[in-house]
């Protein structure tokens, strides 16, 4: 049994403190990126089929754009350093730094011991959405990716087109790694276009129909050479369920854009993190 202390209200009334004030975080040069974006040309287009994933590579200093086509659809994005699969997107620290959802100006950070920006959001047509009355917002770094293990725990059965499996197959196909070798490289995602939040009363993770419509896109500047994989989630717009073939699903388009020659001036990819890794010994 837990007993409520006499000063419970006073303890609850303590105002919160932001864990990571980001004033000292190295800021992206958005003016430079936007100028480079203005003259950028599409050099490759890749499509993630419904309930499947596609891989793509983006050289450092290029852009990639994920677009809704045909119908509302949510995507699960993984990013790796194209030259080193052990450096990959760190959803948890990105969330700690930028909050539960990302938009223009926010960055996708890599895991320890790297912890540097992998990509910067340069345009988000859903930036207008903000935070709705339920606490929901778009492009979350909360969720982990739908996966067949959680599905098996909760519902039983074998479902093979969860984002986790789609990403595993895409990485395997791209690298030549076996499925068993590729799977441990698949990691927590950026939920592109997904509208999520936490319920105020029970603190549970919720999803709701994505506000994305064909023509909407989110665009990124690649800070380092990237290998990406994007799964068109079997949940479709995630208005009801995932981990099944029930929802209406649509493809997602990925465009790779190259800026005009010289548009980035003296820009250089971010250096490795400055911590010396001696860990006190
Ligand atoms: Zn999914």
**Helical run tally:** 6
Strand content: 25-35%
Number of strands: 13
Distance between the termini: 44 Å
Order of helices and strands: HHEEEEEHEEEHHHEEEEE
Coarse shape? globular
Any idea how many domains?
Answer: 1
Helix content: 10-25%
Largest sheet: 7 strands, antiparallel
Query: What Rg is obtained from the alpha carbons, in whole angstroms?
Result: 20 Å
SS-based structural class?
A: alpha+beta
Structure ligands: zinc ion
User: Can you tell me the residue ranges where pLDDT is under 50 for at least 5 consecutive residues?
Assistant: none
Query: What do the pLDDT scores average to?
Result: 95
Describe this structure in words.
By secondary structure, this protein is α+β, with helices and mostly antiparallel strands. The chain has one domain (40-258). The protein has helices at residues 8-12, 30-38, 91-98, 148-155, 163-175, 179-182; strands at 41-48, 53-58, 63-68, 75-81, 84-88, 107-109, 117-124, 137-140, 190-198, 205-208, 217-222, 226-232, 252-258. Strands 2, 4, 5, 8, 9, 10 and 12 form a 7-stranded antiparallel β-sheet that branches. A 6-stranded antiparallel β-sheet has the order 1-13-3-11-7-6. The protein is globular, with a radius of gyration of 20 Å. The structure holds zinc ion. Zinc ion binds at residues 76, 145-146, 162-163, 233-235, 242. This is DUF1989 domain-containing protein. It comes from Donghicola mangrovi. Residues 49-227 form the DUF1989 domain.
